[in-house]
């Protein structure tokens, strides 16, 4: 019996050494969770039970459990490195074979899919063709690496103030090269269907109390006819309180524009143009079009107060073509792509999974686990929702192995091994003594 007891002790000490050695070997493995050998004593059973003073039959390895406590967050400055601060696992798919990991080594493959260092695709909420996030639809996250197509300007919104103390210019006629023929001016870029930028310039000329003319040139040319340098004109009237008189604007008859029932100035006849190489250059259509719906110009927030001319805000929705310049992932897992044209677009949202019993997950190597009956079904959600942790971009979660503890465990396992070997040696000596009796 004592031989078997000692042998079970050797096996247990060997298992303990194996577990501890594996922990030490993975002390530098990102996302690794240390294991712990758990032992139980053994007693021989009989039909009538073990009796009041049973003798033990040794030890057995009851379980090797993993400790899922948080590892340190190590910042790497690589935007696609991800760390989970709190509960949850990344969800990855290898041709439909789903696994879960805490190791956040992610990048993109040649097709733009976000993959880990084994080529498994990161899962998350995907986007449709319009860039809208499809909440609840989990699939392979993909970053659009192709050039972003240009968009023609459809809407231009400005908020500005015209100085009510200005006087009517005495120099006539209007000449964009002569600042004495107008009171103030401002410019912004608008775009055609090919992504070409055109300078949209407004010149404001006071014509009387609360009355102004807004002269418009695009690239210094008439919006309707690029062969002309004469502007299109929109009369602007302000109320006695300094607000734009929208009903008067609707009733006006601007040249080259129309005004809809909401007070939006519609530029529908613009012909995008460019000069040729002749001297002097001759202007003509550049081969692109304006937006099919025209350009809607919203000036309803304009004011006329006794302060200097200022443009408080300006926005337009057109842009030129752009190349992917970088990626950002926020703490809720939303993936943003930034382009060289100043635009950004949501590419998807990383999801995390959690389990009722994480100890029941089955480790499959490569710092990954798979679902088991004991773990229960995964609860999938976005970071920072429910009990799920936050996501940290540009960082990795270190192994939670504490080397000093493991080195002490090595010493203890070694002593246990030696002591159990001594049990076998002593039992062998006793047996030899019996064999030597004559």
From TrEMBL:
Chain ranges of the Flagellar hook protein FlgE D2 domain: 161-319
Any single Gene Ontology cellular-component annotation: cytosol
Keyword vocabulary terms for this entry: Bacterial flagellum, Cell projection, Cilium, Flagellum
GO annotation (BP), single: bacterial-type flagellum-dependent swarming motility
Matching InterPro entries: Falgellar_hook_FlgE_sf, Flag_bb_rod_N, Flagellar_FlgE/F/G, Flg_bb/hook_C_dom, FlgE/F/G-like, FlgE_D2, LlgE_F_G-like_D1
Span of domain Flagellar hook protein FlgE/F/G-like D1: 83-124
Residues of the Flagellar basal body rod protein N-terminal domain: 4-33
Cellular compartments annotated: Bacterial flagellum basal body
Gene3D superfamilies to which the protein is assigned, alphabetical: Flagellar hook protein FlgE
Pfam families for the chain: Flg_bb_rod, Flg_bbr_C, FlgE_D2, LlgE_F_G_D1
Keyword Iron-sulfur in record: no
Keyword Nucleus in record: no
Domain Flagellar basal-body/hook protein C-terminal: 392-437
Functional note: A flexible structure which links the flagellar filament to the drive apparatus in the basal body.
Stated family: Belongs to the flagella basal body rod proteins family.
Descriptive protein name: Flagellar hook protein FlgE
Species of the source: Pseudomonas xionganensis
Taxonomic placement: Bacteria, Pseudomonadati, Pseudomonadota, Gammaproteobacteria, Pseudomonadales
